[in-house]
Every structure is written in structure tokens, then in C-alpha cells.
Amino acid sequence: MWAKRPNPDYDLVCGVAYTGLPIATVISTKQELPMLIRRKESKGYGTKKLVEGNYEEGQNCLMIEDVIVSGSSVYETLETLKELKLKVDDAIVFLDREQGGAAAMSWGSMGVNVISVVTMTQMMGILLKHGCINQATSESVLEFVESHNDTSIVTKEKSSCKNGIDVMDRKKRSFESRTSVTNHPLARKLFEIMSSKKTNLCVAADVTTSAELISLAEKVGPHICLLKTHIDILTDFSKETVESLKELAATHNFMLFEDRKFGDIGSTVASQYSGGAYNIVDWAELVTVHGLPGDGIIKGLMSAINGRPRGCVLVSEMSSSGALTSQEYVSGCCKIAENHTYFVIGFVSQSNVSSDPRFILLTPGVQLDKSVDGLGQQYVTPRAAVLERGADIIIVGRGIREAEDPEAAAIKYKEEAFSAYLERIEAQ
Ligand code: S5P
């Protein structure tokens, strides 16, 4: 394990409780490196410290763990070490069960490079080669690993019942409090934007020229958490368009959300996501994805990310009349989301499809003065979307774009949707 370390020097090692501890101890003594011990629970007596050992702020600490599954233990240790202002870039694990933990840890604010000595696939190959297991066992183990790609353990543990409040109910909770139950850096970022800017408005910027797009983004930027694009309807798309959008997103603190509605097999969506005319993965932090193809679509998209923090929203229900999204379909989408929490951050929906506070529900088909558009679109008001349909975020297109004063309209929608959200959480 020590030989696998990516950097030659560390100031400290920290074993992840509990099996990581004896391994870290051996490394510590053999390499003459100071070691930290992080308790699972702070002891109720004595110094009450969660971490034992001597350290100084800014020291470079290597985490040691035996097996990584969801990454929850590594994650908890990381949080503690970061609170102590230690620098933690790497974790060495003996076995990576390839169930999403290593990928989840590598993203965004977590940014930990997880290096394994063997993966489960390699382990099965070794055991098979030495006649320790047969082909059927190997296949069933790998099938199990593949179908239990579940990083949600991280947050299930964190969100277990506190103070008698049913912390699992999404609708009852503030965006701020939900930041700590998700392990997805972009879901956290979105919750933080919504809480600090006091907005749960996403504007659908369905315009056909870059000038209109930039002008709309400038006007509504201060009032939104997300700018949703259909980039392929622009007649003059260029790299500069994207650069201007990124700048505006940074200035006004909103995220770029491409409504690509990916819906093909994994290998096709990987090419649609990365490369092509729009190179979506390069600039859109979030995208929409249909659940229809099954979870291969998620794996395909993930294969194109290349270490960038990216996420998606699953379209589980549609606002158009006669939509074919049955209850069974919705349940299937929820299952995909639960199994891929390191990529799926929520749903496009028309009802309360999930009470899990990690998932963010976005509801389109919102307008104040209209109920239909003549082409199948159906509208509800911001209040109805938030209070009756359980939306966290409302998506508004023509209601704002076609208003005489789009900025004033954005403020109106924002205020209505945010006060409905406050009403919803206060009512609990
Ligand atoms: O079910 C859906 C899903 C989406 S993402 N219904 C929708 O209308 N949308 C999108 O929301 C749609 O593609 C459009 O960009 C926006 C609604 O626009 P509006 O002008 O009808 O508010």
C-alpha cells in the first residue's frame, strides 16, 4: 500500500476506523511517520477529542483504508481532518469494490485521489487464476458489485433521525440544512446558492441567438440559481458564447444547466456529452437525462467527465399533456438516482417523486398568467409548483422571457417561489 502512494512525502498518516487503523500503524512505524487516530465517536470523557495525535495546521496527511465501498468512512475522516486544517489529497485503500466510492471522493470540494492496490475485478481475476473460486462465483460477485453501485450510504448515515425530526423528508427541510446530507459537490453548491441568494428560480433561456442569450443571462443572473439552456437551438453558437456564459455565471453566482435530455445508450451519450459541436461536458455543470435507457446512460455520461465535477437531473415526469411517464417509470428513475448519487442530484418532476432530502426537484411548466400553450405544455403557478407539487426549484421560460421587462418578471417569479418554499418549511 505504501508503495502505491502518489507522493513521496507525507507529514502524517491517518487510518480510517477501524480496519484502516492497524494498517496505518504498521506504515507509521515502518516509515517513521507520525500517525493520527480518528475516533468514530467522540469519547464522552477525558479530552473528548475526535482525533488523537500530534499535528500542525497545513500538514499533508495520507489516509489509509482497507476497503472502499461507498466512501462514507473515508468521507467522514476527511471532513474531520479538513476541520483540523490538514491538507488531505490522497487516500490509499487496499481494495476498491468499484461501487462508486472512489469516484465520489474524487470530486469537487472533496477532491481526494483514491488509489487502490486492487480492484474487485482484479481480485476476482487473481482468485480465479489460482483456482480459489470458480467462474460462476466470480461472475456473481461482479454482478452484485455492478448492481449495488450505491454511494448513498454516506448520506444515509449522516441523515439518520436527529432530535426526533423526520430528517428524511425533503419538503420539510431548508435548503441550507440539506447541504450536509448530500455528498455531491454540485448539489451542495446549488443548495448554497439557493440559500444565500434566496432564490429557487431557474430560467429557461430558450432563445436562438448568442446575443439574446447573453442579454437574458445578464438581466436575470442576479435572481436565479440556474440558467437552463437548449444550446442546440442557437443559430450562432461559438466558444465565445460559452465563455461569456461562464463569466456571467461566476459574476452572478448561478450554475449552467444544459437541458440536453440525453436519452440513448451509454456509448452514444458519452460522445454527445463530450466533443461534438457543443462539447457540453466542458461548460455545463448540470444536464438533463432521461431514465428510459436504464443506468447504462449514467455510466456512459460518467465515462466522459474526466475528473470534472459534473451532475445530472433525471427527467422522471414531464409537464406536457399525455406524457407517457407512468408511476412505474418514476419508480425506475428513483432507483437509478439512488444507485448513482455521485452523479444524479435530482429530478425534473411534476409531483413529489422523492422525499429524500439529497435530491433536488425541479418543476417546469410554470407561468402566472397562462394554463396551456397550445402545443401540449401545461402550466401551474409558482406557488402550486412548490406547495402542491413539491418543487424545490421552478423552471420558467416564456413567463419571464416574453415579459415586457424580463428582469422584473424574474424578480416576481423568484419572490413568489421562494416565499412558497419558506411557507412550506415553516409549516412543518
Ligand atoms: O417536462 C418538461 C421538462 C422540461 S426540462 N417540460 C418542460 O417544459 N421542460 C423545459 O422547460 C422545456 O424544454 C422548456 O425549456 C422549459 C419550459 O419553458 P416554458 O416557456 O414553457 O416556461
Written description of the protein model:
The protein is an alpha/beta fold. The chain folds into two domains: 2-147, Rossmann fold (3-Layer(aba) Sandwich); 172-426, TIM Barrel, CATH 3.20.20.70. The chain contains 17 helices and 14 strands. The strands form two sheets. Strands 7-8-9-10-11-12-13-14 form an eight-stranded parallel beta barrel, surrounded by six helices. Strands 3-2-1-4-5-6 form a six-stranded mixed β-sheet, sandwiched between helices. α9 runs parallel beside α10, α11 (266-273) runs parallel beside α13 (296-302) and α15 (382-388) packs parallel to α17. The longest helix has 21 residues, at 406-426. The chain binds 6-sulfanyluridine-5'-phosphate. Residues 204, 206, 230, 259, 288, 315, 318-319, 348, 364-365, 367, 377, 395-399 line the site of 6-sulfanyluridine-5'-phosphate (S5P).
Q: Overall mean pLDDT score? A: 90
Number of helical segments with 4 or more residues: 17
State the end-to-end CA separation: 50 Å
Q: CATH topology of the largest domain, anyone?
A: TIM Barrel
The biggest beta sheet, please? 8 strands, parallel, barrel
Give the helix level as a range of percent: 25-40%
Count of discrete domains? 2
Give the name of the CATH architecture of the largest domain: Alpha-Beta Barrel
Highest-level CATH class of the largest domain? Alpha Beta
DSSP summary, beta strand count: 14
Distinct small-molecule ligands in the complex: 6-sulfanyluridine-5'-phosphate
Radius of gyration: 23 Å
Task: State the fourth-level CATH superfamily of the largest domain.
Answer: Aldolase class I
Which shape, going by the Cα principal axes?
Answer: globular
Q: What order do the strands of the largest sheet run in, or round the barrel if closed?
A: 7-8-9-10-11-12-13-14
* Percent of sequence in beta strands: 15-25%
Structural class: alpha/beta
The low-pLDDT segments are 152-167
